[in-house]
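A reminder from the course coordinator: this example appears on the midterm review sheet, so study it carefully.

Given structure:
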């Protein structure tokens, strides 16, 4: 017999994938231009030209054996130094190359870090709404998920509710700002209060509580809003970063883990990260991509399109009568379902060829995620359908 748990995971596609597959079917039946697919978080804008230029240059000029060979398990030393320097320049932090671990994107960063931190039965707090794969990663690492809902009025942390779920078994909390699916950005005041609460609780229980800062959307933020760098506010932090969204490189699988140099026992923690990477087979992240990101640190794809899409979608949908908190970052709009059952609403939306994702798997029932990393033209064409859909409820 195989692993029951793994078979179950493999057979049951995520809801998002399920909707995307339905979209493929509809595209083949009625033509791609007639399907309004808002299901996936796949960046719609190209990687900046400099990424391709650097890759071509590396392929032409870097000796092939070095370019395509194994790097150190934790990543090339020069690449890790460049990343540490970049973190320090941007955030006045104290990052050290020997605390950086190169990964295949944020998913790998998270799963390695969770395996490094958790012993069986340790609890991990997820702030709903949250990226559904967190649950899979935590449980596979032996952890127990505890969820807390963010405030409906602004998707900031509900501190009273959070305080209630923290116990002496709490090992970690995952913070994802800008957030998938709400688009909320946790502000400086919230991060300060979070740090105070975690320190207070860790003192009270005589434990250590770690923050996993899942930051694939860090650069996708509008109106020059600040995204506080959590290691500057809370010592026991591990940053799980990815270049998937900022550089529009999700298929290339490249990111990193940064263990804060202020974390307690950071040396042992980093050793556990290396051990988890080894045990999971996540060593030597793709070398071509490591060398590429080293040359383009600080650059992003042209994210102005997302801001334009956000404004268009948010303004139109709220004018039709939908309720939503205006997202400050990422590329998702999280609307309140006009009927209690968001699944039923998303089914009804299919009548208008609108493919939307119910919030249930994000731990937030009664809400629906709309990914606006799509062409502006598609949004313009879809708007009348959104209006017809809400009018059914009037
Ligand atoms: N974390 C969040 C919140 C995400 O939305 C995603 C992808 O959509 C990931 C992690 C995984 O990112 P990556 O493609 O870099 O593995």
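Designed residues:
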């Amino acid at each position: 017999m195989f692993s029951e748990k793994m078979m179950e995971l493999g057979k049951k596609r995520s809801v998002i994938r399920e909707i995307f597959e339905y979209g493929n079917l509809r595209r083949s039946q009625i033509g791609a231009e007639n399907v309004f697919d808002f299901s996936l978080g796949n960046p719609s804008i190209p990687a900046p030209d400099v990424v391709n230029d650097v890759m071509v240059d590396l392929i032409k000029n870097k000796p092939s054996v070095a370019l395509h060979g194994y790097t150190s398990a934790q990543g090339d030393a020069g690449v890790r130094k460049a990343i540490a320097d970049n973190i320090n320049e941007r955030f006045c932090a104290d990052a050290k190359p020997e605390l950086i671990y190169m990964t295949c994107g944020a998913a790998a960063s998270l799963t390695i870090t969770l395996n490094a931190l958790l012993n069986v039965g340790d609890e991990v707090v997820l702030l709903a709404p949250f990226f559904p794969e967190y649950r899979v990663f935590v449980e596979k690492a032996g952890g127990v998920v505890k969820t807390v809902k963010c405030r409906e009025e602004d998707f900031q942390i509900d501190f009273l509710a959070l305080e209630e779920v923290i116990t002496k078994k709490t090992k970690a909390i995952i913070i994802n700002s800008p957030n998938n699916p709400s688009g909320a950005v946790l502000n400086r005041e919230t991060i300060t209060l979070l740090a105070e609460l975690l320190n207070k609780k860790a003192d009270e229980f005589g434990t250590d509580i770690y923050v996993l800062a899942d930051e694939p959307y860090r650069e996708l933020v509008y109106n020059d809003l600040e995204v506080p760098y959590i290691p500057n506010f809370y010592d026991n932090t591990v940053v799980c970063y990815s270049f998937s969204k900022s550089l529009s490189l999700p298929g290339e699988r490249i990111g990193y883990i940064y263990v804060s140099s202020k974390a307690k026992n950071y040396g042992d923690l980093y050793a556990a990260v290396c051990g988890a990477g080894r045990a999971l087979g996540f060593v030597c992240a793709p070398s071509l991509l490591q060398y590429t990101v080293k040359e383009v640190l600080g650059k992003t794809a042209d994210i102005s399109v997302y801001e334009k899409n956000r404004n268009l979608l948010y303004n139109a949908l709220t004018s039709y009568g939908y309720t939503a908190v205006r997202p400050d970052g990422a590329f998702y709009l999280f609307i309140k379902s006009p009927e209690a059952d968001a699944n039923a609403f998303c089914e009804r939306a299919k009548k208008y060829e609108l493919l939307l994702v119910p919030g249930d798997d994000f731990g937030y029932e009664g809400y629906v995620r709309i990914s606006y990393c799509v062409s502006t033209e598609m949004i313009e064409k879809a708007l009348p359908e959104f209006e017809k859909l809400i009018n059914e409820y009037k």
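The pocket of pyridoxal-5'-phosphate is lined by residues 41, 105-107, 131, 176, 180, 214, 216, 242, 244, 250, 255 (CB under 6 Å). Residues 4-48+301-391 form a domain with the Aspartate Aminotransferase, domain 1 fold (CATH 3.90.1150.10).
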